[in-house]
Amino acid sequence: MASRTYGACVLCQKAAVVKVMCRGMSAAAHPQSQVDFLKGEVHRKHPGVTNLKTLRLPEELQTAARSIIHRAQVTQLTDRAHRLTNVMWSRKRAVEDFTLRQKAVSLEKQIWEKSMETRGDIDEQAQEDRVRKKVFSELRRTTYHWTPMKYDEEFGVVYMAARLAGGYAAVRRAINEIKKRDPSFAPQSLLDFGSGLGTVAWASHSCWGDTLKELVCVDSSGPMNILAERLLKGDDERAEPHIKQVYFRQFLPVSPKVQFDLVAAAFTLSELPNAKEREEAVFTLWRKTSSYLVLVENGTKEGHQMLMEARDTLLKKQEKTVHDPRPASVFAPCPHKLMCPKLTVEPTMPCNFQQMYQPLPLPGHHDRQTEKFSYLILTRAEPAEAETKGVDWARLIAPVQCRTRHVHCRLCCPDGQLQHLVVTARKQSRDVYRCARSSDWGDQLPIIQKVDDDVQSDSER
Questions:
Q1: What are the backbone dihedrals phi and psi of residue 39, each rounded to the nearest 5 degrees, phi first?
Q2: Are 388 and 40 in contact (CB under 8 A)?
């Protein structure tokens, strides 16, 4: 009996030695596996994960919204909210005057050429009048007619039913990037430009409620500010607001020296009539930013391109008078400061992300919904050096496709290129493989330098 026990112990010791040797050989074959980018986290919570599970509105906000909707008694509210959602999603930028003039000249030339081919001797003045009428008619038919959104009390309720939960989800997901990657950030002041229903204030309070001491909400619409205040007070005028120190304004603070730790503009740039006003607004917001500027728009081509305009404005241009010399750097989602590669490939597709959320409990709004959005976060902090040597972080720009023993990841990389990376445990290491399987669209993925044959540029595929 004793000899058997001794034999079993010897076998166990040999097995342990073989296991250690195999591990050593694996590490030697894959030196990247020794890179500690996990920082003590499990794979499903690795440092690049910034996605959130299905979001719900804060209970106080949802209760207040339901009370306001019940009191308002808006007819056909669900249908009107659905139509407004479609209108907001298809909304485009106003056509610039210069572009309109170019289009008019081109149309006039085409119409003149056709008319000269079909007619002989004609009254030149009459023909000129006909051409002008045709040009105006064609411009009216083919040009997008942008009009500003105007809110009254009833339309504000329709907007709330359509956009409160989705807007909150997009903002909450965007600022989670800061919360996760910069845990030491504890803002005391917030400026929300184009605050609407106050979703930025609610989302920010859910992240930094313990430290925020001043929240300034700026919106030119008086009825919308009143509605936002009702939401804060639970639809009870005599009640104390759920979030303290929230101040509503119709204009931005005048002093250029007044700065806020966190500045945000969600779905606001699209409400400005032209590129010049958008550029001025972005400069103004950056001037008032002491740490982070967060911009959020619809996840459409228009929304993405407006954010890229803002990005170029702050990275490539400079105001005449500079009050804070600290330059802008991109914090998220771009892993680089080069031109967005999505704008250089055909067909052009927006860089967007998605967040699942639970909508307001209206008829037909019970199931989970998805908010598709684009965002941009800029910071005054110096770009952080890679914390782990030999590791770059790329952004997942499409859903991760998990297959047997490999994962397809489409990435925007630090070198400014779009890449299709096929991740396997053999090529990238077990840690990277498990991180890839645990990641999703919008997360960051560690890229260990350097893998050759498993990376293909999207243009090559």
A1: 55, 40
A2: no
Rg (CA), the chain: 28
SS3 303: helix
Cβ atoms 358, 57 nearer than 8 A: yes
Helices (H), 182-221: 199-208
Mind listing the pLDDT tens digit for each residue in 76-101?
999 999 999 999 999 888 888 777 78
Closest C-alpha among 373, 147, 380 to residue 285: 380
Q: How confident is the model at residue 121 (pLDDT cuts 50, 70, 90)?
A: low
Among 254, 378, 252, 256, residue whose Cα is nearest residue 324: 256
Q: What's the CA gap between 19 and 234, in Å, rounded?
A: 62
Beta bridge partners of residue 406, listed in sequence order? 403
Return d(Cα 237, Cα 260) in angstroms, integer. 29
DSSP, collapsed to helix, strand or coil, labels residue 131 as helix
Distance CA 351, CA 336 (A): 14
- 227 residue type, one letter: L
CB 12 within 8 A of CB 404: no
> What residues have CB less than 8 Å from 160, skipping those under 6 apart?
65, 68, 69, 197, 227, 231
| Per-residue CA distances from 38 to 53, 309, 312, 408, 435 (Å) | 21, 35, 33, 21, 9
Query: What one-letter code names the amino acid at 255?
Result: S
Beta bridge partners of 216: 191, 247
264 contacts 191 by C-beta, under 8 angstroms: yes
Does 379 score more than 80 pLDDT?
A: yes
Q: Which residue has the higher pLDDT, 316 or 256?
A: 316
DSSP reduced 3-state for 264? strand
Q: pTM of the entire structure?
A: 0.86
Q: Distance between the two ends of the chain, CA-based, in angstroms?
A: 65
